[in-house]
């Protein structure tokens, strides 16, 4: 979808045109459904969050000032909707964690060899809700620890600890995966 | 080799590798139609809710208007009554509820009416409220003697007063001045205002003492 088509669709969305809504929904589904899928372990929950976010997009399309990329604006709405959905479920216990502990993480080349998109998503889904949410906000959305702490109303140290947990658990599982594949290849 | 090792140790490199891998995940379009159908149902539900909320707004607005009107005029009988002459100077404002200017009326009306109502067991109206004979007449005599207060009785020829069944408060037709109980009991014309009559009584008493 080029910029001109997008402009036409955005004008249609402001008028509440059903065909434009359908076209924009399908365009966003292809691009941004995976964002919702990263926050929710269940595909149904991810679809429900995505639909709620799209409803908000259509309701608030007049608030979009057409200054930045529309997909960035929609993505932010999707992330916020997912966080709202998860907020009731997330239980954080306060942990004090330092930058030294966070930077002590190391991963060898064998770990990188095991990274493959489809499997990696399953590994991310296997993380606890709290750890997964911090990982998504910090690594995927580019939040700082201050922003993560403010978004989830947790101390900065807790955010750092959960990020460290996410990295460590993902590294271990990637290593196990790599070892498992190596065994299969040897056989 | 050493350089590669140190880069491998960098947690940010690990993050970047994960981000790239997850971003490269192909879009799953298989469920798109089902998701869009669910979205349309959600949109229809939201529109219905909005309509219902609109109805609630209308109901709330009407309720607010009714409450505001009720606060301004809690009792419709206490609202100013216009006699309809068109001249605000001449139009007499008659409050149906007893005022401070006529305290006798205020204290008198309730007990006598309550008694009449409990004895007769029937709602009384106008002149029928005080029959010619019976306990009510006794009460009236007692009023003259200064013992028990009684209901005010309109002068002969004047428009008859009606009594509200529920409260026992006499409701006079608009434009009729309220006569003081003592004057009515004595059979005098209720032309004098209550305060003036009371002043006159006081003067008479003083003169007798003098």
TrEMBL record, chain A:
Q: Which domain of life is it from?
A: Bacteria
The segment(s) forming the RNA polymerase sigma factor 70 region 4 type domain are 118-170
All copies of the RNA polymerase sigma-70 region domain together span 24-89
Q: Which UniProt keywords apply?
A: Sigma factor, Transcription, Transcription regulation
Known SUPFAM superfamilies for this protein? Answer: Sigma2 domain of RNA polymerase sigma factors, Sigma3 and sigma4 domains of RNA polymerase sigma factors
Return the Gene3D superfamilies for the record: 1.10.1740.10, Winged helix-like DNA-binding domain superfamily/Winged helix DNA-binding domain
The keyword Transcription regulation is assigned to this record: yes
Pfam families for this protein: Sigma70_r2 (PF04542), Sigma70_r4_2 (PF08281)
Q: Which NCBIfam families match?
A: sigma70-ECF
Similarity field: Belongs to the sigma-70 factor family. ECF subfamily.
Protein name listed in UniProt: RNA polymerase sigma factor
Q: Which organism is it from?
A: Flaviaesturariibacter amylovorans
Native organism taxonomy: Bacteria, Pseudomonadati, Bacteroidota, Chitinophagia, Chitinophagales
UniProtKB/TrEMBL annotation, chain B:
| UniProtKB keywords | Membrane, Transmembrane, Transmembrane helix
**Has the keyword Membrane been applied to this entry?**
yes
Give the transmembrane ranges. Answer: 56-73
- In which domain of life is the source organism classified? Bacteria
Segments carrying the region annotation (Disordered) are 109-141
Name of the protein in question? Uncharacterized protein
Organism, as annotated: Flaviaesturariibacter amylovorans
Source organism phylogeny? Bacteria, Pseudomonadati, Bacteroidota, Chitinophagia, Chitinophagales
């Amino acid at each position: 979808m080029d910029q001109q088509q997008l402009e036409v669709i955005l004008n249609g969305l402001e008028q509440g045109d059903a065909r434009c809504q359908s076209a924009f929904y399908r365009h966003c589904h292809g691009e941004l459904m995976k964002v919702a899928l990263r926050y929710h372990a269940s595909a149904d929950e991810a679809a429900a969050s995505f639909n709620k976010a799209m409803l908000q997009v259509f309701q608030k399309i007049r608030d979009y000032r057409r200054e930045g990329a529309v997909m960035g604006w929609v993505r932010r709405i999707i992330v916020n909707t997912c966080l709202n959905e998860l907020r009731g479920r997330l239980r954080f216990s306060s942990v004090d964690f330092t930058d030294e502990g966070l930077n002590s993480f190391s991963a060898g080349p064998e770990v990188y060899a095991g990274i493959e998109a489809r499997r990696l998503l399953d590994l991310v889904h296997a993380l606890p809700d709290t750890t997964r949410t911090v990982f998504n906000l910090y690594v995927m959305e580019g939040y700082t620890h201050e922003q993560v702490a403010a978004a989830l109303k947790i101390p900065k140290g807790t955010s750092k600890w959960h990020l460290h947990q996410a990295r460590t658990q993902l590294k271990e599982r990637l290593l196990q995966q790599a070892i498992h594949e190596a065994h299969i290849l040897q056989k | 080799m050493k350089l590669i090792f140190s880069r491998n140790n960098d947690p940010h490199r690990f993050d970047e590798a994960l981000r790239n891998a997850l971003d490269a995940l192909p879009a799953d379009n298989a469920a798109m139609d089902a998701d869009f159908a669910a979205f349309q149902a959600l949109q229809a539900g939201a529109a219905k809710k909005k309509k219902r909320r609109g109805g609630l707004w209308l109901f709330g607005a009407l309720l607010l208007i009714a409450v505001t009107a009720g606060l301004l005029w809690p009792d419709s009988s206490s609202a100013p009554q216009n006699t309809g002459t068109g001249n605000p100077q001449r139009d007499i404002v008659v409050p149906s509820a007893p005022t401070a200017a006529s305290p006798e009326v205020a204290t008198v009306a309730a007990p006598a009416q309550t008694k009449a109502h409990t004895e007769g067991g029937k709602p009384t109206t106008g002149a029928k409220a005080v029959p010619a004979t019976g306990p009510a007449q006794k009460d009236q005599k007692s009023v003259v003697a200064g013992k028990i207060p009684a209901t005010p009785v309109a002068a002969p020829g004047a428009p008859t007063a009606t009594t509200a069944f529920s409260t026992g408060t006499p409701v006079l037709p608009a434009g009729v001045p309220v006569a003081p109980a003592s004057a009515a009991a004595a059979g005098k014309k209720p032309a004098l205002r209550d305060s003036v009559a009371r002043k006159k009584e006081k003067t008479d008493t003083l003169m007798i003492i003098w």
